[in-house]
Specification:
With 132 residues, the protein is mainly α. 61% of the residues lie in helices and 0% in strands.
Length: 132
């Protein structure tokens, strides 16, 4: 049976894949809506990894504010990201299916910076054995 740390390690690895896809897509001027999806997934999976290592059940949802509120119970500094993650609300589902939602490069670069900062913080908060 897999431990919480094993599961968290898997989430962190998947989050890293999403982050690498976002970074590479930006570098090569690939579609920005896809970059947004990967950034949202990066953040979601890292927050869930933190919840897993603290044995906190979370909803099967893309609702970043709700996930962040749960995680802030063990890491209050995460609360600082609530406002910064607001634009991510549409990245998981709506942007993928709604043809009229198209982010501009400035918005995506701001989202990338937010995801990068949150990723760095979560890497500091997570146990070293779950990091890639």
């Amino acid at each position: 049976m897999k431990s919480n740390h094993d599961y968290a390690r898997g989430l962190v690895l998947k989050a890293e894949h999403d982050f690498q896809n976002a970074a590479g897509s930006l570098l090569h001027d690939l579609p920005l809506d896809t970059v947004c999806f990967h950034l949202q997934q990066t953040v979601e999976k890292l927050i869930k990894a933190l919840l897993v290592v603290h044995d906190i059940d979370y909803p099967l949802s893309h609702d970043l504010p709700a996930l962040l509120a749960l995680a802030a119970g063990v890491a209050p500094e995460l609360e600082n990201f609530q406002q910064l993650l607001r634009p991510f609300a549409s990245y998981a589902v709506e942007m993928r299916y709604e043809p009229l939602i198209n982010p501009d490069r400035e918005e995506v670069l701001a989202a990338f910076e937010t995801a990068k900062q949150l990723r760095a913080l979560l890497h500091r908060l997570l146990p070293k054995e779950v990091l890639p």
